[in-house]
Amino acid sequence: MVKFTEKERSTIRAIWEKVNIDEVGPDALARVLIVYPWTERYFGTFGDIFTASAVLNNDKVRAHGKVVLKALDEAVKNVDNIKKTYAYLSRLHYEVFHVDPDNFRLLADCITIAIACKVKSALDPQVQATWKKFLSAVVDAMNSQYY
Amino acid sequence: MLSKREKKLIAEIWEKLTPVAEDIGSDALLRMFASFPGTKTYFSHLDISARSTHLLSHGKKIVLAIAEGAKDISQLTVTLAPLQTLHAYQLRIDPSNFKLFSHCMLVTLACHMGDDFTPVAHAAMDKYLSAFAAVLAEKYR
């Protein structure tokens, strides 16, 4: 199980405090769809997501981006118990949505970059490393119920 | 596959970054060393602490090479030929590390450019850095 020091916990919280979920969520998901277009396969009900401008203007992408980041808030609040917190989501993504778990890593990278665009120098190399440790734990938890 | 528009965008971005090559390059390297400590094993002969001469000059070298390649992306194999040889026969850096560096470079660019690092710019840059890494690794085997 991943262990976080008190310093790491406060670093994660400090960055998360700067994140506007309603802004960063849609931006991160848009980046996933634009940078890795094969991820479109999981969003068949979202309508037109086949060009960058369509993605950026898509209401369902916007709404879902917020859903995803709200879920990340749960992980921030339960940093010592991410696996248990995300067990349900992992099962859901495997058994119902059939998502290739490599995509969780792609989403994590896009979340980091979306945050970086907003907070800029606040995400210095050390903070980025701590944030990455946190997201890796989240990605692991999302993988945990795949069998 | 990079479109004409994307190639133009990439060339523009790197032209703007050339004057601050040292800062961009050293920042990306520092991020990589912090997030992926295994990458430090290739630099045991250098001082890679923040603002060190080695780190700044090495970061500058890397960014200038990336910027040079961006001037004519269709000629990457020609432009990178000497670096291909260097990496394959002398440096022998495991090419999986190129991905790690590319990710950290994207974060550096995001922090530097803020909202100007749009999803479209992000996609184009990711594609360019992947192509750059692939060409760099071509002579490995």
Which residues of chain B sit in consecutive blocks of at least 5 with pLDDT less than 50? none
Radius of gyration of chain B: 14 Å
Number of strands of chain A: 0
Helix content of chain A: over 70%
Quickly count the helices of chain A: 7
Q: Per the principal axes of the C-alpha atoms, what is the gross shape of chain A?
A: globular
In terms of DSSP E residues, the strand content of chain B is under 5%
Q: How many strands, what sense, and barrel or not for the largest sheet of chain A? A: none
Give the terminus-to-terminus CA distance of chain B: 23 Å
Helix-strand string of chain A: HHHHHHH
Count of runs of 4 or more consecutive helical residues of chain B: 7
Number of strands of chain B: 0
End-to-end gap of chain A:
19 Å
Give the topology string of chain B: H per helix, E per strand: HHHHHHH
β-strand amount of chain A: under 5%
Q: What oligomerization state is this entry in?
A: heterodimer
Structure description:
The complex is a heterodimer of chains A (147) and B (141). Chain A is globular and about 45 Å long. Chain A is 70% helix and 0% strand. The model of chain A has no long low-confidence stretch (mean pLDDT 96). Chain A is built from 7 helices and no strands. Chain A is an all-alpha fold and 147 residues long. Chain A starts with 5 loop residues before the first helix and ends with a helix. Chain B is mainly alpha-helical. At the A-B interface, helix 2, helix 3, helix 6 and helix 7 of A face helix 2, helix 6 and helix 7 of B.
Question: What are the key terms here?
Answer:
heterodimer; A: 147 residues; mainly alpha; 7 helices; B: 141 residues; 0% strand; globular
Secondary-structure blueprint of this entry?
The complex is a heterodimer of chains A (147) and B (141).
Chain A: H1 6-17, H2 21-35, H3 52-56, H4 59-77, H5 82-96, H6 102-119, H7 125-143
Helix pairs in contact in A: 1-7, 2-4, 2-6, 5-7, 6-7
Chain B: H1 4-17, H2 21-35, H3 53-71, H4 76-79, H5 81-91, H6 96-113, H7 119-136
